[in-house]
Design brief:
The complex is a heterodimer of chains A (263) and B (337).
Chain A: H1 2-18, E1 28-43, E2 51-65, E3 69-83, E4 94-113, E5 117-135, E6 144-162, E7 166-173, E8 177-181, E9 188-189, E10 192-193, E11 200-204, E12 208-222, E13 225-238, E14 244-259
Antiparallel strand pairs in A: 1-2, 1-14, 2-3, 3-4, 4-5, 5-6, 6-7, 6-8, 6-9, 7-12, 8-11, 9-10, 12-13, 13-14
Chain B: H1 4-15, H2 18-23, H3 31-45, H4 49-52, H5 56-69, H6 73-85, E1 93-96, E2 99-102, H7 115-121, E3 126-127, E4 133-139, E5 142-147, H8 155-165, E6 171-175, H9 184-191, E7 199-206, E8 219-223, E9 235-239, H10 246-255, E10 260-264, E11 272-278, E12 284-293, E13 309-310, H11 315-319, H12 324-335
Parallel strand pairs in B: 5-6, 6-9, 9-10, 10-13
Antiparallel strand pairs in B: 1-2, 1-12, 3-4, 4-5, 7-8, 7-12, 11-12
Classes of the chains: A mainly beta (263), B alpha/beta (337).
C-alpha cells in the first residue's frame, strides 16, 4: 500500500514537472504573519472527551514564484488553552496546547486561463508536532503531556488569480504517507521525559488521514511590500487503539516583503 | 479581485464550527460502555500488573455482567469501584459523582504519630513560608523539620528557610510520618539540599505496550545538589506506615546519602505514579502508569521501605507524651557526634 502511494505521488510530481519550465527569474517573498487559531481535538491517550479552545499563533514564510512554479517554506507555532465539557469553575481539567510546524510546498503550473488565473499541481511536505499538557482534577495531580508528531507528504493542488495590485489563492494538500511519532502513553510526566519516546512508524491513509485547505489574499501596499490575509483549515485523524483527532482553523494577517528580483 | 478579502472571509465563516464537527461530540456511553472504558484503560496503561498477580481478564468476566445490570449510576460506581479495589493499590481510585472509592486495606495499619506530642519536644516550632513544613529545635543542637506533604510549590524555599533558621544545629531530624505524598519535583527540591553530588536514588519504569509486562527499561532518578545552603551533618528521617508515595520517594532519595538514618516503621508501600483519567459522564479515576523501584531494582509496592532502625511506638507511649520514634532518632543523632 505504501509503495503504491509513493508511486502515485511520484507520478503527480512528474506530471507537474512536465509543465513548461521557463519563467521569469524571481527573488523571494518573506512574510511574517500572526493571528488566532481555533482548535478542537480528542486524544484518547489523554481523555475520551473533546477539548476545544483558541490561542495565538505566528508564522514566518519564504516563497519564491515564477509564472511556472512556486516554492513555499513556512514555519509556525501556536499555543492555546483547551477545555472540555467537564471543565469546572476551577478551570480543570484543561489542556495546554503547543504546536509547531514546518511546511515545504512545491508546485508547477499545469493550466493557465488567460494570464490572470493559473492552476498548479505539486507536493507538500508537512512536519507537525503537537504536545498537549493535560491538567486534571485534583489540581496538583501528576501532569502528563501527550504528543503526536507527523511528517507527511502528499499532493497539492492550488489555484491563483492575479490582479493588478493583488493576488488571490487557494490550495488543498492531502497527505498520503506519513512518518508518525506517538508515545504509547504520555510524552512526559511533570516535565520529565517518559522513556520510550515517540515510537516512529510509517502510516498510510488507512491510519493517518489529514487535509490542509488554505486561502490567501495578498494586496500590494508598496512596490516592495504586501499585506497578506489568510485562512487555513487543518484536519488530522490518526487511527490507533487510542485514536487522535485534531482540527484547527487559523486566520492571520501578515506583512510580506519582496526580496531581490521579485521587487 | 476586489472581492478577494471577502472571499477569504467567506471561506473562513463557512468553516467556523467545522473543527468541532470533524472531531465529533463527546461519546454518549451507556453504563456497560463506561465500565469497558475504565477496564480497557487500566488494561492498556496500568504499570503494576506484573507485581499484583491480578487476573484482569477474569475480573472483566466477573464485573462486566454486573455493570450491564446496574440500575443506576450509583450502582455502576459500586461495580467499577469494586473492580478497581481488587488491585489493592493505594494509587487507584474512582470519583463517581458524590461517591469516592479507594483501597483502604492499609488504613488499619498502626501509625503512632501525634504532632501534639512532637510539640512537647519542639517548643519553638515555626511554619515555613509556604506552610508545607514546620521547623524548630528538638534539642539545642538538633533541628527538626516536619514535612506535612509534598503537594504544591515552594518546597525549595521552605527548606532553605528552615536550614537558614537552623544554622546553629549540627544534626537534623526530618519527619515524614503521616506524609501522604505529592509531586516528585518537591521531594527532589528538599533532598537536593542534602547531597553534594548527583546520586541515583531510584529507578522508574513506565507501561509502554499492550502486554501487562510491557515496561520501559529502568530509568535512573538522579538527585542533584541545589539551593543556596547544603546541610552536611547527620540526618535522621522519621517514617511510619502512613509515609506513602512521594514521601517514600523522599525516603529513597535520603537513604542514598551518607550520614542519613531512616528511623521508625516501614513506609506504606505505594510505588505507583498515577495519572488521572476522565469519563464522558463527568467521573474521574486514577491509576499508576509508572512504577518506582529501589536502586537495587526491588519493589516496595504493598510492602513499604524498611527503616535502618525499626521503631513503631505505641498508643500508650503517645498518651504518656512520649514519641518513641523521635526519642530513638535523638539518641542516634547524639551518638553521631
Amino acid at each position: 500500500m505504501a509503495r503504491s502511494l509513493i508511486a502515485v505521488l511520484v507520478g503527480l510530481l512528474c506530471i507537474a514537472a512536465r509543465a513548461p519550465a521557463q519563467g521569469k527569474p524571481s527573488g523571494g517573498r518573506l512574510t511574517l504573519a500572526a493571528g488566532a487559531v481555533l482548535v478542537a481535538e480528542r486524544d484518547e491517550h489523554a481523555s475520551p472527551l473533546r477539548y476545544d479552545g483558541a490561542g495565538p499563533f505566528v508564522r514566518v514564510s519564504f516563497e519564491t514564484r515564477t509564472e511556472q512554479r512556486a516554492l513555499v517554506v513556512r514555519l509556525g507555532g501556536a499555543i492555546g488553552t483547551l477545555r472540555s465539557a467537564m471543565t469546572g469553575a476551577d478551570d480543570l481539567p484543561r489542556q495546554e496546547l503547543t504546536r509547531g510546524w514546518i511546511d515545504v510546498e512545491y508546485a508547477r503550473r499545469i493550466v493557465a486561463r488567460g494570464h490572470r488565473t493559473r492552476w498548479l499541481l505539486g507536493a507538500s511536505l508537512a512536519e507537525r508536532g503537537t504536545v498537549l499538557r493535560h491538567l486534571t482534577v485534583p489540581a496538583g495531580a501528576n501532569i502528563v503531556g501527550y504528543a503526536l508528531y507527523s511528517t507527511a507528504i502528499g499532493p497539492l493542488v492550488a489555484i491563483e488569480a492575479t490582479g493588478r495590485r493583488s493576488r488571490l489563492g487557494a490550495q488543498l494538500a492531502v497527505p498520503v504517507l506519513a512518518l508518525i511519532g506517538r508515545p504509547y502513553g504520555g510524552l512526559y510526566n511533570e516535565l520529565t521525559l517518559i522513556p520510550g519516546g515517540l515510537r516512529f512508524h510509517l502510516a498510510t491513509v488507512d491510519a493517518f488521514q489529514a487535509g490542509d485547505v488554505t486561502t490567501a489574499y495578498a494586496m500590494e501596499l508598496t512596490r516592495g511590500a504586501e499585506l497578506l490575509l489568510s485562512y487555513q483549515l487543518v484536519v488530522e485523524r490518526y487511527r490507533d487503539d487510542a485514536p487522535l483527532s485534531f482540527a484547527s482553523q487559523a486566520a492571520s494577517l501578515g506583512l510580506t516583503i519582496r526580496l531581490g528580483a521579485d521587487r | 479581485m476586489k472581492h478577494g478579502p471577502a472571499g477569504v472571509a467567506a471561506v473562513a465563516l463557512l468553516a467556523v464550527g467545522c473543527t468541532g464537527v470533524f472531531v465529533g461530540p463527546d461519546p454518549k456511553l451507556d453504563r456497560l460502555a463506561l465500565f469497558e472504558q475504565v477496564w480497557t484503560d487500566v488494561d492498556r496503561y496500568y504499570s503494576l500488573f506484573s507485581m499484583k498477580g491480578v487476573a484482569w481478564d477474569s475480573l472483566h468476566d466477573v464485573y462486566a455482567p454486573r455493570a450491564a445490570q446496574a440500575a443506576s449510576d450509583s450502582e455502576l460506581g459500586d461495580v467499577i469501584g469494586a473492580m478497581l479495589l481488587e488491585l489493592h493499590d493505594i494509587h487507584v481510585n474512582l470519583a463517581a459523582g458524590p461517591q469516592f472509592y479507594r483501597y483502604s486495606g492499609y488504613d488499619a495499619r498502626p501509625a503512632f504519630f501525634d504532632p501534639g506530642v512532637v510539640a512537647r519536644y519542639v517548643t519553638d516550632r515555626h511554619a515555613a513560608p509556604n506552610a508545607h513544613s514546620a521547623f524548630g529545635h528538638a534539642a539545642p543542637d538538633i533541628g527538626y523539620v516536619w514535612i506535612l506533604h509534598f503537594e504544591g510549590s515552594g518546597f525549595g524555599a521552605d527548606i532553605d528557610t528552615a536550614l537558614a533558621q537552623l544554622a546553629d544545629v549540627r544534626a537534623l531530624i526530618i519527619d515524614v510520618r503521616d506524609n501522604p505524598g505529592g509531586q516528585r519535583s518537591n521531594l527532589e527540591a528538599v533532598a537536593s539540599r542534602f547531597t553534594d553530588r548527583g546520586r541515583t536514588y531510584a529507578f522508574t519504569r513506565v507501561r509502554d505496550g499492550p502486554r501487562h509486562d510491557d515496561l520501559s527499561p529502568p530509568e535512573p532518578q538522579v538527585l542533584s545538589p541545589d539551593g543556596p545552603r547544603r546541610f552536611t551533618g547527620p540526618v535522621a528521617v522519621l517514617t511510619n506506615r502512613k509515609s506513602v508515595s512521594t514521601a517514600e520517594g523522599f525516603v529513597l532519595a535520603m537513604r542514598a546519602l551518607p550520614g542519613v538514618s531512616i528511623v521508625g516503621d516501614s513506609t506504606e508501600g505505594g510505588a505507583g505514579n498515577p495519572v488521572t483519567r476522565e469519563l464522558p459522564n463527568g467521573w474521574a479515576y486514577r491509576f499508576p502508569f509508572m512504577t518506582w523501584y529501589a536502586p537495587d531494582g526491588t519493589t516496595f509496592e504493598e510492602i513499604g521501605l524498611t527503616p535502618d532502625l525499626w521503631v513503631r511506638g505505641s498508643a500508650e507511649e503517645l498518651a504518656a507524651g512520649r514519641d518513641a520514634v523521635l526519642d530513638t532518632a535523638l539518641a542516634v543523632l547524639r551518638r553521631s557526634q
